[in-house]
């Protein structure tokens, strides 16, 4: 919104320009005493090309006057900055009208997809195309343009769903958001098992994701502490709990990295991951459409339509 000071600056500048144009016309429409005759300016080139001093045609001058009057009328009708004109027009109201028209058109389009499960919408190329656009505008900043994610942001193209991978659970995650909290266990583990306790738990957790793993001495010690602290969320076998967002530790899908250093930081210092709720911003139907696109990215038994390829 333009401030009052800038409004007056523009008004004064426009008024001076209009007054200057009017003065320039008035000063040049009539001949002054001492001016050369219309056919006598002494400016001759090539012997027969002469510059005359004839005034502009009257109709041309009148067009300039009409332009000045039009400019003044335009300002009074539309206004300048914070000064509203007699037409009560504003760019804000114009934008609101255009937005309302576009929103109405969009709602007509979205009616086709309202209330449908995301796995059903995923088989509709039109729905997937709209969902891809919504994903690019809102979700790609965290999950990447192709859904591959990044450190701390889940990969949407694999089978690892921390909060459940059914259509309803995926939709719920996008609609309502998630808040995943991994407590910091460093102090508790050190108090129970000594300075190497966190490393022992790391060794056990790493062994869970190795097929046919054999627990060494450190992993065996870590298993004992895992059984007293970690099974409440991750379960006795480390399979996790989608209702809590506790990940399956028997797979190689590591959200914050699976190295010894990364796991040590995760266990000792904890993690806090937030997935925002998108229903307030996008509405339910658009969330269903973006969920349909995400469904086509993930690995499951249903084949995605060819148009869904990123």
UniProtKB/TrEMBL annotation:
**Which cofactors must be present for this protein to function?**
heme c
Binding locations of heme c 2: 182, 230, 233-234
Iron among the record's keywords? yes
Which keywords, in A-to-Z order, does the entry hold?
Answer: Cell inner membrane, Cell membrane, Electron transport, Heme, Hydrogen ion transport, Ion transport, Iron, Membrane, Metal-binding, Oxidoreductase, Repeat, Respiratory chain, Transmembrane, Transmembrane helix, Transport
* TM annotation in the entry: 6-25, 59-80
Record-listed heme c 1 binding positions: 139, 142-143, 275
InterPro entries reported for this sequence: CcoP_N, CcoP_N_sf, Cyt_c-like_dom, Cyt_c-like_dom_sf, Cyt_C_IC, Cyt_c_oxidase_cbb3_su3, Cytochrome_c_Oxidase_Subunit
Question: Pfam families of this UniProt entry?
Answer: Cytochrome_CBB3, FixP_N
A GO molecular function term, named singly, is: electron transfer activity
Q: Residue ranges of the Cytochrome c domain?
A: 126-209, 217-298
Signal peptide interval: none
Q: Which family does it belong to?
A: Belongs to the CcoP / FixP family.
Identify this protein by name: Cbb3-type cytochrome c oxidase subunit
What species does this protein belong to?
Answer: Dyella thiooxydans
